[in-house]
Amino acid sequence: MDELDVPDPELGTATIVFETPNGEVDHLTVENEYVVYFQDHWQVKAGEDGAGNDVVRRIPKEKVYYVERSVEEFQDRIDALLDRAKDRFDLDSLNLG
Question: Which domain of life is it from (predicted)?
């Protein structure tokens, strides 16, 4: 199956505030698309290595104080994905209710 071709609108940023291994509070601010919650960890793109590969920091959920995102812009992307999926798969014709 082909991937959905979705325009990439400006997504805004996300800031994650967390406790470091030495007990200090730190934060990272990245584009929304570079923060995800998966397998009881927040995963954040923390930069790139010398070869241009992404460096991902996994932060256990227990160490995260909060994650703040630009929700309105993020919602625009989700809405675009849903609209494309509806058009592509003709979801409006299904009686799901």
Answer: Archaea
Cβ atoms of residues 20 and 26 within 8 Å? yes
Tokens representing residue 85 in the block: 């999926």
Q: How many domains does the chain have?
A: 1
At 18-61, the pLDDT tens digits run: 999 999 999 999 988 899 999 999 999 999 999 999 999 999 99
Domain residue limits at 19: 13-71
The pTM (predicted TM-score) of the whole model is 0.61
> Residue 17: inside a domain, yes or no?
yes
Please name every residue paired with 31 in a beta bridge, in sequence order, or none if there are none.
13
